[in-house]
Amino acid sequence: MANVTEKQYDAQSIQVLKGLEAVRKRPGMYIGSTSENGLHHLVYEVVDNSIDEALAGFCDAIGVTVHKDNSITVTDNGRGIPVDLHPTEKLPGVELALTVLHAGGKFDKSTYKVSGGLHGVGVSVVNALSERLEVVVDRGGKRHHMAFVRGRTTKPLSVLGPAKATGTTVRFKPDPEIFTVLEYNYSTLADRLRQLAFLNAGVRITLTDERVDPARVEAFLYKGGLVEFVSWLNRNKKPLHPKPVAFRAVKDDVEVDCALQYEDGYNENTFTFVNNINTHEGGTHLTGFKAALTRTINEAAKASNALKKADFTLSGEDAREGLTCVLHVKVREPQFEGQTKTKLGNSEVEGIVRQVVNERLGNFLEEQPAVTRAIVEKAVSAARAREAARKARELVRKKSGLESGVLPGKLADCSLSDPALCEIYIVEGDSAGGSAKQGRDRSFQAILPIKGKILNVERARIDKILGNDEIRAIITAIGAGVRDDFKLEDARYHKIILMTDADVDGAHIRTLLLTFFFRQMQELIEAGYIYIAQPPLFRVAKGKEEYYAYSEPERDEYAKRLGNGDGKGQVHVQRYKGLGEMNPDQLWRTTMDPATRTVLRVTMEDAVEASALFEKLMGDEVEPRREFIEQNARYVSNLDV
Fold first, then answer.
1. What residue ranges do the domains of the chain occupy?
2. 130-139 and 167-174 beta bridge pairing
3. If 0-12 CB within 10 Å is exposed, 13-18 middle and 19+ buried, where does residue 384 land?
């Protein structure tokens, strides 16, 4: 029976958030988070408006400035946001765009045929989440100005004077009441703006950072568009043919723009975009591309008699080995789905992309026999390696996660079977593995010790990868397969924690493991299943009192605290170089107990930049790696001497 004193639930109980109040109440719904990602998303929302002007053919210059106080100015030479009164809302167009959700020219397809902006909420959200925002619009020969504080208009639209050109300038400062991080990362901004410049050939995007003296200025302008994008991606590799293959076509209002190039490595790097949005989860455009590429390469191989003596056809993996490709489609009404709403769902796009790639790539291969020969030989070589790896692959495939006979012998599995509750520690060395096995909670924690440095998969083909004992044990334990066979739903653990020693060798092993997961099981990273354990660096003890320190300043603070105690006894400081130096109970308390441990989740902000970094650090070319070390050596904080 209902409690009669319970608060009445009627119409007046329903809260109505007016204007932009909803955005400030639940900012994560609109920009994803209030941390670093959300902070940078504000810039992207404003820049997307300028890019839409460029897509419509009215803008070729965009500027982004980070000021000393971490406020941002975005300028463009587009048409300028409309300033005339809206016929029904009776407000200037610029005020509507900045104060009303879902108000803007993107919804009128006669204004913008295609537009970016992932969430479709636009610059009004930026206004709502800014401590202050000002907009200057040059339009109709006049310079107009408005100002806002936390989404509310404080200075109505006014004319400052004459204007010689057209364009929009927006300056905003993120609200410290909303954001937990307020400092912009230059590299994060530069990476995104560089991508936009590649995707929009001929548009100059300038990034200025006034927080350093002198100000840092970088301009991105790529008249070659996707061709330059692919060349940039392959700058540290050895291409099989000198120039990327490029083609563009428009069919049924869908524009397909593609550039690709093969190199002598073994990994595939295909990046897809829709209306400038990075669709890292793929979708119908990627499905269409893969089907067409496999068919076209197979036809080229048959025409050249490359498969005459072979008893196999080329698989999709064979056709894509060593491929670097950027596919950009422009769709009037994109439908996004998937875990992060970055997977294209428009069914009609698959057939359009497939037809365009079949036709254009097929024509190119017919006209360029030397390039065709190099690509086909690469694919046939990959197919032979795949056949050699077939038995190894079958060994690591699991029909079910509970098939005891298939699990590696050195795996100490957990007793629970629900993957969402289970975690596996991949531990460096038998000694540390022994401590971890004794210290763990057997119900939900599994332990897999590995010996030393695993194979660098950046320089290895799939047959060699699957022939490596340590890698095979990892694949078998996780149970989800690799590459095209990978199925996230088959993963036996939803937390895969890398636990290596806190020294240079441990860092190297961790990097090798991350390279493996990025190249062979990238979906695990995208799902947020990969973590890095944070074992302590020091133990500071005096008598029965002890502390664990994760940095040198923390160590010194604990030593000082114990040293200023009762004056009895000596303070002992122990530097842990190996996990095996810790007793099982110490390892549990510091690194494995969910109530007290710290683990870092591995995330991937940008697959393009992540791929480039792995190639630089783990690839065959030495010079880029040397340059990276020279540029970043001064940032090293923990180096074993």
1. 21-220, 226-393, 403-535+601-635
2. antiparallel
3. middle
Burial (CB < 10 A; 0-12, 13-18, 19+), residue 474, is buried
Joined tokens for residue 381: 């070589």
Which residues sit opposite 208 in a β-bridge?
A: 65, 217
Q: Beta-strand (E) ranges in 200-294?
A: 204-209, 216-220, 245-251, 254-262, 269-274, 277-278
Q: How confident is the model at residue 639 (pLDDT cuts 50, 70, 90)?
A: low
The full DSSP string for 583-641 is: -HHHHIIIII-TTT--EEEP--S-HHHHHHHHHHHHSS-HHHHHHHHHHHGGG------
Both structure tokens of 372? 């065709």
Amino acid of residue 559: A
pLDDT at residue 598 greater than cutoff 50: yes
Q: In this structure, are residues 555 and 540 in contact, taking their beta carbons and an 8 Å threshold?
A: yes
Reading the block at residue 227, the tokens are 């061709």
| Separation between Cα atoms, residue 233 and residue 481, nearest integer Å | 28
User: How far is Cα 347 from Cα 350, in angstroms, rounded to an integer?
Assistant: 6
Q: What does the pLDDT look like over 504-537, one tens digit per residue?
A: 888 889 999 999 999 999 999 989 999 999 999 8
User: What's the alpha-carbon Rg for the chain, to the nearest Å?
Assistant: 28
pLDDT number for residue 311: 66
Angle between helices 226-233 and 186-199 (to 10 degrees): 130
Pairing type for strands 167-174 and 204-209 reads unpaired
DSSP state of 392: H
Smallest CA-to-CA distance from 535 within 505, 573, 577, 493 is with 577
Question: In the predicted model, is pLDDT for residue 309 greater than 50?
Answer: yes
pTM of structure: 0.76
SS percent in the chain: helix, strand, coil, step 5: 40, 20, 40
Examine the pLDDT at 400 and tell me if it is beyond 50: no
CATH number of the 21-220 domain = 3.30.565.10
User: Over the range 97-112, which residues count as b (16 or more CB within 10 Å of their CB) and which as e?
Assistant: bbbbbebbbbeeeeeb
Length of the chain: 641
Listing DSSP states for 177-191 in one string gives TT-S--PPPHHHHHH
Coil, helix or strand at residue 454: coil
Residue from 39, 78, 50, 22 nearest 172 by CA? 39
User: Are the C-beta atoms of residues 295 and 355 closer than 8 Å to each other?
Assistant: no
Contact 540, 546 (CB under 8 A): yes
List the one residue out of 192, 162, 182 whose CA is nearest residue 62.
Answer: 192
pLDDT at residue 544 in the model: 85
Pairwise CA distance, residues 362 & 296, whole Å: 6
Task: Tell how strand 152-162 and strand 142-149 pair up.
Answer: antiparallel
C-alpha–C-alpha distance, residues 162 and 231, integer Å: 44
Q: What is the DSSP letter of 153?
A: E
Fold of 403-535+601-635: Rossmann fold (3.40.50)
pLDDT at 21: 79
pLDDT tens per residue, range 195-233: 999 999 999 999 999 999 999 999 999 999 999 999 999
Q: Fold identical between 21-220 and 226-393?
A: no
Which amino acid appears at position 523 of this protein?
E
What gap in Å lies between CA 496 and CA 603, rounded to an integer? 13
Strand partners, 547: 540
Residue 56 and residue 113 in contact, taking contact as beta carbons nearer than 8 Å: yes
CATH ID of 226-393, from 3.30.230.10, 3.40.30.10, 3.40.50.140, 3.20.20.70: 3.30.230.10
Question: Catalytic residue numbers?
Answer: 428, 501, 503, 505
